[in-house]
Amino acid sequence: MKSKLVSMAVALLASLCLWIYVVTVVNQEVSNEPINDVAVTFYGADQIRADSNLVITEGADTTVNLRVTCSRSTLQKLSATNIVLTVDVSRIKEPGTYTMDYSVTYPSGVSNSDVKLNGTPQSVTFTVERFSSKTVSVRGILDGTVQKGYYAASMECSPNEVLLEGPESLISQVSYAQVILQQDNLSQTVLQSCPVTLIDDNGEAVDSSNISISANGVSVNAIEVRQPILQMKEIPIVVEFLDGGGVTKNDMIWSCDPQTITVAGEPEVLEKTNQLTITQVDLAQMIDPIAQDMPVTLPNGLVNVTELESVFVDISVNTSRIASKTMKVTDIITANEPEGYEVNVMTMQLTVTVRGPIDEVSQLTEDDVWAVIDASSLREGTQSVPVTIEVSGDGSVAAIGQYSAAVSLVKE
């Protein structure tokens, strides 16, 4: 009996201690306990984007510091990650700055009556802007050096343009996207992935934290760049002559200003490149001296390192050995007349200029020059046709320019 009484006394004492613990510890009220950096959720942000093309910019990352008064057991259920602060923005229709209250949602097992709450700030201020998008080009810059005798050609970027999406105030600032390759002492082509920076009209970086950058529907954080490193070579600038009209290239006086150009290319291309032909002159058609700027056009695979746009070319006949003479040609004959047709030459004479060595030209007479019309391609009726000028001798004297005559073709 005595043992039973002792057991009952121990049980009673344990119950009393448990009750005292619950009353004094578990259910003890704590005041103004801090729960800091609770994130704010903006309800309806997707809706205003879809309905009104609006996005939240400044204030979108707002957090609130809370002070709670509740029982210690309730406090143990609360944290910055399970308390939800919500601002309803679904009714916003226009851009602007708004200040709105937030609602509080507690985790399961905690009701509003269990907690007294003070928040700092007590309301949330945020900015809503019009959403915008545009496509900009990607520009690559080499921040480095190349070895002597090498040239850094234009950088190739992939993709070479990107789509920007975000607040209109930011998107409107962007002029282009930029990537910078930082390498020194280069002597071969480089392939590398480089981070992308958005640049404004003044060359300053634009904050891209609220801007989405993409290409072909894929988010872009870096751009693949190819920096061609080419060998350089200085080559002469020349004029190509087609012999004719009583002269050859040896009878010409010519010059180019400048006389050389520096180009760059792959080694196998440069090996085959020994000069730049600035123009081709058909001497049979060159009547007057040439003195003019000629545009520089390089073959595929070469880069114009000098950035030379034109070359001044001066070409004339060496008059100390070559002469020209204008003559009246009345001997106009036809050849290859079609069967069953009659060819009538209506032009009575042609004024022809011939050119060649001085001694031979001086001895020419009108009897030494005649015109030939090829009648094989004539059509019925009167027409103007090309005329070939023939000069007697060894061919060192020839006509310059083009000539034509009027003829008629009739059935016999």
Oligomer: single chain
Main sheet summary:
11 strands, mixed
Number of domains in the coordinates?
4
Q: What share of the residues lie within helices? A: 10-25%
What is the number of strand segments?
32
- End-to-end Cα distance, whole Å, is 161 Å
CATH fold annotation of the largest domain: RNA Polymerase Alpha Subunit, Chain A, domain 2
**Average pLDDT figure:** 92
Number of helices: 6
- Which class do the helix and strand fractions yield? mainly beta
Radius of gyration: 46 Å
**CATH homologous superfamily (4th level) name of the largest domain:** YbbR-like domain
Strand content: over 45%
Task: Name the CATH class of the largest domain.
Answer: Mainly Beta
**What does the overall shape look like?**
elongated
Low-confidence stretches: 17-26
Report what the structure shows.
By secondary structure, this protein is mainly beta. It has four domains: 27-121, Beta Complex (RNA Polymerase Alpha Subunit, Chain A, domain 2), CATH 2.170.120; 131-227, YbbR-like domain (RNA Polymerase Alpha Subunit, Chain A, domain 2); 231-317, RNA Polymerase Alpha Subunit, Chain A, domain 2 (Beta Complex); 322-411, RNA Polymerase Alpha Subunit, Chain A, domain 2, CATH 2.170.120.30. 12% of the residues lie in helices and 52% in strands. It has helices at residues 2-26, 45-52, 72-75, 168-171, 267-271, 358-362, and strands at residues 29-43, 54-56, 63-71, 84-88, 96-101, 103-105, 116-120, 123-142, 150-152, 156-158, 161-167, 174-181, 190-200, 205-206, 212-215, 218-219, 222-227, 229-242, 252-257, 260-265, 276-282, 290-295, 302-304, 310-317, 322-329, 332-335, 341-345, 350-357, 369-374, 381-391, 398-399, 403-411. A hairpin with an 8-residue loop joins strand 12 and strand 13. This is YbbR-like protein.
